[in-house]
Design brief:
alpha+beta, 2 domains, 7-stranded mixed beta barrel, 3-stranded antiparallel beta sheet, globular
Length: about 350
């Protein structure tokens, strides 16, 4: 009898151990599955990322290839002891900076790299903005442009997110010394569209009347604030047009600006005033927005007035530039807000007298 009871207990214990093992196996599989679904949070975090790019620097500098890709390797330095490296391809992009910068903008082709992160693995092509040339002055330019994107993020989530980078360039041919610079990634259009539940509109016939009025005014006034005249909805030029899938009562688009290096806020030495527009310096502001009533502009400007402190906080809390540069940036914004807060409604007057009838 005792033997029979012992045998039954042993069987139960054995079955229980099998159940535990199976559960542990399922837990392990779940853990693996969960880890494979983790996000790198590429555009959801403001912390600077250190990366290393290894490729043929001599060919990159000499030919600035826009058609054929160069073989490359990218390393994301996750911590002092942890990193992830993958083989990728890269080529240059852009027009003016491609012709005039020693370090032209870069397009990284991440197809089939397999980083193991949900957001990274969905990206096929990723835009990177490097410093135009070596030196402290150009370092400040790329940081200023990065902050221009961050300022527009304050106004709306329907805007390009960016991620600040510390970039190590390593020459695979070993002909050049390693180079270390700042740069930043720009959120791919596909990610922006998916995040905002929109579709990109590709048309060269659009104008400002085809954009949601409040959205168009926000973009126009923002570009006026940062001294940007290098944009246009027709074309389009430095403006992306999206169409909302969730809220689209009259079929109007959503305009999203990008490429801010040719602005008064950045104040790059290579950016020149426009004879066609009649500006004397790159820091002179010109309003290109569509004409609205005084009451509409007043409502538009209240949004900027309410965001003033956050604009200044973004700049003043940025840890990678000197106080002198921060003072220059806030001083440039001061000119805008002094006009906005003036008793004579100087800013409102400028908008009403400079707006365009399309």
């Amino acid at each position: 009898m005792k033997k029979k009871i012992f045998f039954q207990v042993a069987i139960v214990a054995f079955l229980f151990s099998l159940l535990i093992s199976r559960n542990n196996c399922l837990l392990a599989q779940t853990a693996i599955s969960d880890s494979s679904k983790k996000s790198f949070r590429l555009f959801e975090d403001d912390k600077i990322i250190e990366i290393t790019l290894r490729f043929d620097l001599s060919t990159y500098f000499r030919t600035k290839p826009k058609e054929d890709y160069l073989k490359a390797n990218i390393t994301f330095h996750l911590s002092k002891t942890d990193s992830i490296s993958k083989d990728i391809n890269l080529r240059t992009r852009g027009i003016w900076r491609n012709l005039n910068c020693i370090y032209p903008p870069i397009e990284l082709n991440l197809k089939k790299a397999g980083f193991g992160y949900t957001d990274l693995d969905k990206i096929s092509k990723l835009k990177m903005v490097p410093e135009c040339k070596s030196g402290k002055e150009n370092e400040d330019y790329v940081l200023r442009e990065y902050l221009a994107y961050k300022l527009f993020n304050v106004l709306t989530d329907t805007s390009f997110r960016v991620r600040l980078l510390s970039v190590n360039y390593i020459d695979t041919q070993k002909k050049r010394k390693p180079i270390r610079q700042y740069g930043f990634f720009i959120e791919p259009v596909e990610m922006l569209a998916a995040r905002t539940n929109c579709l990109q509109v590709k048309s060269r016939t659009l104008n400002q009347k085809n954009i949601v009025p409040k959205v168009m005014d926000r973009l126009s006034i923002f570009n006026y604030m940062i001294g940007n005249f290098d944009w246009s909805v027709p074309g389009p030029h430095n403006v992306l047009v999206l169409k909302s899938l969730a809220f689209d009562p009259v079929g109007l688009g959503i305009a999203v600006p990008y490429d801010f290096d040719w602005t008064g806020l950045v104040n790059a030495s290579y950016a020149l005033p426009s004879e066609a527009i009649g500006t004397q310096t790159i820091r002179e502001r010109v309003f290109f927005g569509i004409c609205r009533s005084k009451e509409v502009y007043q409502e538009d400007l209240k949004i900027f007035e309410n965001k003033k402190e956050e604009f200044y906080r973004i700049i003043n809390e940025f840890p990678y530039m000197s106080n002198q540069v921060k003072k220059d940036l806030t001083g440039y914004l001061d000119e805008f807000f002094i006009q906005l807060g003036g008793k004579k409604d100087m800013l409102l007057y400028n908008l009403l007298n400079s707006c365009k009838n399309f």
